[in-house]
Amino acid sequence: EQTQRDVQQMMVKIEADKAEADATRSVVEGERATALAKEAECVAIKQDAQKDLDEALPALEAATACLNKLKADSVREVKSMGKPPNGVVLTMTGVCIMFGVQPLKKTGDRPGEKREDYWEAAQKELLRDPKKLLDDLINFDKENIPEATIKKIKPFIESGDFDPAAIRKSSVACEAICMWVRAMYKYHHIARAVEPKKLKLKEAEAELDVVSRKLRVAEENLDAASMRVQRLEEEYESAVRKKDDLIKEMEASQVRMERAHKLVGALSGERSRWTDTVENVHEQFKLLPGDCVLAAGMVSYLGAFGVADRQELQKKWVAALDSKRIQRSQQFTLKEILGDPDKIRHWAICELPDDLVSIENSIIMDTARRWPLMIDPQGQANRYVKNMGRMSTTGLDVGKLSQANFLRTLELGIQFGKWVLLENIGEYLDPSLSPVLSQQKTKDGVGYCIHLGDKTVTWTDGFRFFMTTTLPNPHYAPETAVKVTLLNFSITREGLEEQMLALVVAKESPDLEERKNMLVLSNARMKKELKDTEDTILELLSSADQDILEDETLINTLATSKKTSEDINEKVIEAEDTEREIDSARESYRPVAFQASILFFAVTELSEIDPMYQNSLQWFQSLFMQAIDEAPALSSLAERLQALKDHFIHTLYENVCRSLFENHKPLLSVALATSLLRAEGKLDDVDLRFLLHGSPVEIRRGLQNPTDFLTKETWNQVLGLAQLPAFERFEQHFANAVDEWKRWIDHPEPEKHAMPGIGPDTTLTPFQQLLPMRVLRLDRLTQSITQFVITTLGESFVHPPAFELRNAFKDSTNLTPFIFILSPGSDPVGEVINLSVELHCNKKLEITSLGQGQGAKAERMIEDAMSRGGWVLLCNCHLAESWMPELERICEGIGASCHRDFRMWLTAAPSSAFPVAILQSGIKLTTEPPKGLRANLQRTYLSLDSRALEGCAQPVPFRKLLFAFAFFHAVVQERRRFGPIGWNIPYDFTNEDFNVCKLQLRIFLDQYTEVPYEVLRTIGARINYGGRVTDDKDKRLISTLLETYVCPDILSPSYTFSSRPEYFCSNAETREEWLEFIRNLPVTAGPEVFGLHPNANISVAVREARQLVHDITTLIPQAGGGDTEADSTLTLAQQAEAATPELFDEAYVAGRFPIRYEESMNTVLVQEIERYNRLLSRMRVTLADFQKALKGLVVMSEDLESLGHSLVEGAVPKVWEAYSFLSMKPLPSWLNDVKARVTFMRRWINGGKPATFWMSGLYFPQGFLTGTMQNYARKHHIPIDRITFTFDFAHSMNEPLEHPEDGCHVSGLWLEGARWVLSAQRLDWSHPKQLFTPMPVVTFLPMPEEMAERRDTGVLYACPTYKVVSRAGALSTTGRSTNFVQMIDVPSGPFSTSVWTKAGVAIFLSLPD
Predict the structure, then answer these.
(1) Which of 534, 626, 709, 969 could covalently link to 994 via disulfide, CB atoms 3.0 to 4.6 Å apart?
(2) Structural element, H or E, at residue 451
(3) Is the dihedral of CA 1200, 1202, 1204, 1207 positive or negative?
(4) Taking the CA of residue 1226 as centre, how many other CA atoms within 13 Å lie in the half-sphere pointing to its CB?
(5) Is 1097 exposed, middle or buried (0-12, 13-18, 19+ CB in 10 A)?
């Protein structure tokens, strides 16, 4: 109020001062008007005078300009004139007048007359100093020219001769001087006229000065009054402001109180949360050291590993941190430490799989400095990056190294800051990418640049580079790995289960899945808004001034944000409740998704068996959705779910089966069954491991073998089986029921009968029932596994569907190529041609076989067929490996514009070079030649033309011998099924071999009246078929086989090809009759049809069982159990090291057995010791290094890692095989064999040369035999090349023998395919189930060849002797197989030698278990 009164009083005083000031202002205005009038008058006078002066100024300025241009030299030129022209004289006269220079008086023309001479005066006065003259002219006082001067110069001005133009003719310098004289004259007259005006102007200016002084005084008075008024007004305004400020402050206080209430309300719910957050941050800060170490380690090292390895390494790191007492989070995850929830939700929207490994990969990709290289066999990382790229501000470019313009794409991406994705890279990267991978940026002005090839490209910060490979297990060189961030994006079971759940729910309850997807997007959006709101609040609070209540925008924003946050929180809670309800409904379909995820991994692992067995995730999911559509609709949800599971696994089995070879189809069934049982917890890994590997070590403690029918190795496996939980005390139960077990083991089909009691209250699962079969009847394991599959999955899973090309064609489109996977003897071209005829496409079918230079032709054929809807068949793609990348590019380029009738057919043998992308996207089919003797014969006769049996000069012999060749053709192919006893080396005989024999048979029978059997056998066995045969024992066999069929007896109606009477040569005449005869043959031919003993079936069964187990091991390599893998492997290594014998003392042996001419055995012994020492040393070194590597003391090399796997699998490590003797034993038996061999050598060293040599214990038995022969040759002085071995056989198995006079006694030999009859001293057929029989001690007796030929020993079969039963071996420097030892002549008895040749009878030094 006081302020308001002061303001009113001040207002009254201001009004009075304003009136006084207004009066003063009136006086000032009058004075100002007078001053302005006088000033205007002065200006007018000045302008009038200036106007007159302006008339003279141009001439004056022109003259001055000419003078300025005039040079002193020009003036000197005038001075130097002796007789100057008139114009020069006239000009200089005018100048003298202007400067007042007096002329010289000279005598005139008349006496007494004086004339004035200005020229000489000018020369003396003016031209004497030209420069001074010019200065005087320029600075001439033009304002004060005397009138007398003007009068004297006037005649010159008025004279026409005194014109600058006329003067110029005489002198340029005088022209300028003339112009100056005239200008001075003109200026003088104008200045005379202007003079009164100047005086008048001076008087006016004096009056103006008086008026201006009065005006200044009045204005000063006015300014004083105004200042006084202004000061009062400022005081007034200050008082008013003060009053207003007080009012505003009062109002602001009220507003601040209101804002404070708003702020308290807005932040009321945050205090406790922020307080907790601050406390948590403080706690997390303490844990930062350990968490940072773990996070850095995971980002740097774990990207390339799978989930199991990541967890294992993380456990080790955590243990190391704990040992150093470094604090860390108890439940550490990379997602919690480096993950941003908003980013993770955004990644999920971009289809990043919702499993921990994928999220960790994306975090590593987001935080790592190096560009990511993603191992992406299922393409999910590729899809995720593409979705992310499309949402980026700069976009995404996709390319492949096979594209010609990829570097251009990369260049533009770097330049414009785009994302670039490089797809489908291999194990080697283009060197041109190195600068990009290493990010070799260089400073360029204000930015950076990079050298890409021969170009310099500007680097833009927005650029990001991604690489993906579809290779499931690539091996990158270290120099590549250090430049990139390797990320393993192989799909995990959990991630796939979520994807399959989404698919099945989308099919079964589309509205439910749609709501789920909408909720996911909505929740992500709302949570992002909530996070943004919270960030806004914190940002506003942190950036606020000292008094937060002064910021109305902040308070309002906080209030609005709080309201928004509350609304969003309510919606999020509501949405999460709804999502939980939806998830609960979706969970009912999880069993279907769970089963599908298990089956996918079971199917994809098949690529480990054959590189052509590639299946993509997209194909699998498409098949899954197809199965859902085709599954029967049932009202009950439980029944529907079971129907979905059953139908999908059956559909999967059928579709995968058509792409597998016959021998791998049972493997698929086993893989499906075991994978499901393992996932459901119904199959213990310990049991699975025993099935795959048996007992990997020798068990030294346990019950002694109570039987005489089980070998030591088999009983060791029984003891190993007894260590499994389900078979506790199995060895005791076995011993208590030996007779019952003997009957069960001897039964032809033990799998169909219950096993004797294993123990009270012991119930074995179907899988556990396989384990005793593996130990006791390995030959029936395949049948047992078949029964296991039937029990687990159903009978349909052991009967693969028949192959029908037309059905496969129905599943095809113009975008999916057909790939025929070839096997030896198969040719699908005919089937494709037949289908094209059936579908009326044969005229549009083009066929070519790939090879060198055929790529361009094939590409033209494909382009033409794509445009017109044709078919293209490219045969033998495996022969064009270099063109395969181009084929992949072509297949990727097939798009919607391709003709809908276009089909591409490819044939290829299994090859790792075949593009995986084509295999995954195409329809794979396998074609194999018919199995079985009857099917082979039927195929041969079906391929014959109906007239092929007609037109021969000798029709009956032709038809019969043609059947003989056909039978022989079937036999030589079917013998491959029996493995080494069938052929030492499996050969790929083809139909062309038979066709040539058929053609030659017709030619010979047409040309000769007698059948040339010997010729037919020779060209058939040695040329047509024998041309493929490389082993000399196989050459003997094929000749013997053909003698059986192509012989004169073939024409006899009673002649049979084997002991089975149904295998004879029919008298059929026509092709149809022969086919009918063949159809009546047994479906399955026994071994005796091929000349083999029935025991050969057991060998086949054992080999097939071992192969099946090996293949299962390949599919399931990490079946563990019991201790951790590292601990168990360490235990195995320690046991193997303990079982390794000590090395021999080579110096001692060399001294005890010196080199002697008469005793070659000393040299043999020393060489054997050296070989064994190399092996034993290698074993000890690698086992010691491996144990150090497990403890982290040395680097785990590839060789050491392979050694570890071999120890677990019970196989001989490859790092030992290069130093080892040939052996087919598993690791425990092999170690026992090593000890037995070393023991034999030590007995030889300690006891001297033995009477009987255990030949199986020799590393190089060929050298031993050579030494024996050498001793004989040196003793009897006979050339060694004229000596041969003869053989004697002991009459009992344990007959004691003394040192022979010549030669040597040898033990340790085993016979396959026959048995040795001690009493008769000859060969005979083996007993049933007795695959190998021991030979007695054989005496190798050297003697001259002529003496050996005189020995009467009856019919002898030259029996080949091998080290191991595989028979085949590498070719040595001697030209013979490293496996072959020696031919031993064995008495054949009543049988011809051809019987034992066809039976594959051979002797072996070492047997497998």
Answers:
(1) 969
(2) strand 447-452
(3) negative
(4) 19
(5) middle
CA 121 to CA 99: how far, in whole Å?
A: 12
Are the C-beta atoms of 1289 and 1322 separated by less than 8 Å? Answer: no
Nearest-angstrom CA–CA distance, 593 and 601: 13
H runs (alpha helix) in 870-981: 884-893, 916-921, 933-942, 955-974
Q: What is the DSSP pairing of strand 923-927 with strand 818-822?
A: parallel
Q: Choose among 168, 1409, 134: nearest CA to 776.
A: 1409
Amino acid at 892: E
3-state SS class at 661: coil
Q: Six-digit token pair at 986?
A: 């499996």
Q: What distance lies between CA 1255 and its chain's CA centroid?
A: 52
Distance of CA 1125 to the CA centre of its chain: 28
Q: How many residues are present in the chain? A: 1409
> Sign of the CA dihedral 874, 878, 881, 885?
positive
Token pair belonging to 277: 């957050």
Say whether 612 sits in a helix, a strand or coil: coil
DSSP state of 1371: B
CB 1113 within 8 A of CB 693: yes
* Longest CA pairwise span in the chain (Å): 194
Task: Copy the structure tokens of residue 519.
Answer: 């909720």
Could you tell me the CA-to-CA distances from 769 to 747, 753, 787, 1117, 1314 in Å, in that order? 16, 11, 10, 22, 33
- Beta strand 447-452 with 441-444 is antiparallel
Work out the end-to-end distance of the chain between its first and last CA atoms, rounded to an integer number of angstroms.
119
Q: Which residues of 815-842 are buried (b: 16+ CB within 10 A; e: fewer)?
A: ebbbbbbbbebbebbebbbebbeeeebe
Closest among 1397, 1409, 1318 to 1356, alpha carbons compared? 1397
How many angstroms separate the Cα of 351 from the Cα of each of 346, 365, 385, 398, 528?
9, 16, 9, 18, 18
Other C-beta atoms lying within 10 Å of the C-beta of residue 1208: 21
Number of separate helices (H) and strands (E) present in the chain: 51, 26
What does the radius of gyration of the chain's CA atoms come to, in whole angstroms? 57
The pair of three-digit structure tokens given for residue 33, joined into one six-digit string: 């008007």
Q: DSSP class of residue 876?
A: -
Mean pLDDT per 10-residue interval, the chain, length 1409 residues? 62 68 69 69 64 61 67 73 81 84 74 73 78 81 81 81 81 82 79 69 69 71 71 69 73 74 64 71 84 90 86 88 87 85 84 87 91 90 91 88 84 91 88 90 86 88 91 86 91 87 84 72 71 72 67 70 70 72 81 93 89 88 91 88 93 91 91 92 90 81 87 89 89 90 90 77 84 92 93 91 82 88 83 88 89 86 91 91 87 83 92 87 84 88 83 90 94 91 90 91 92 93 91 94 93 88 90 92 89 91 90 71 64 90 94 91 94 95 93 87 87 91 90 94 94 93 94 93 92 84 94 93 91 93 88 86 89 72 92 94 92
1351-1384 b/e (C-beta count within 10 Å ≥ 16 → b): eeeeebbebbbbbbbebbbeeeeeeebbbbbbbb
Backbone φ/ψ region at 1257: left (φ over 0), alpha (ψ -120 to 50), beta: alpha
8 A C-beta contact, residue 674 and residue 682? no
* Bridge partners, residue 421, by sequence: 398, 466
For 1068, the 3-state DSSP assignment is coil
Predicted structure pTM score: 0.73
For residue 449, what are the contacts with CB-CB under 8 A and spacing of at least 6?
441, 442, 456, 457, 458, 459
**Contacts of 106 by beta carbon, 8 Å cutoff, 6+ apart:** 114, 115, 116, 117
Cα 166 from Cα 159, distance rounded (Å): 11
Q: Could you tell me the two tokens for 106? A: 């000279």
Q: Which residue has 């119904």 as its token pair?
A: 682
